[in-house]
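Dig into what follows:
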Amino acid sequence: MAKYLISFPSVAMNVPDSEMETVGRDAREVIRETKKAGVYVFGGGIDETVAPVLVSANGAVAEGGYSWAPPLNGGFTVLELPSREDAITWAARIAKACRCDQELRVFGFDPES
C-alpha cells in the first residue's frame, strides 16, 4: 500500500466565518472515518502564526523560508491506501468537508524514518 498526501493551501479555503464551525465539524468527521477505516497516518495544518526560519547545514538561522518558493501553509492529511482510486475517493470526501479542492500526491515515505 502507498501513502498519499492530500493537501490544500490556505488561500484555497475561502469559507465565510459563519460556516467555519460547520466546516471544522465536517472535516473532523471525515478524519474520524479515516481512522475508523484504518487508513489514517497523520494530518494537521501549518501554524501560520509562527514565521518559518531557514536553517543551514552549518547551523546558521535566517528568518523566513526559501525566498524563491511559494509559502508552505494550509492543511494536510496522509493516508495509507491500496490504490490511487481509493486516494481520490478520500480526497473528494475531504474536499467536500473542507469546501475546497485538494491536491493529491503519492507521499514518498521512508520506512526507516
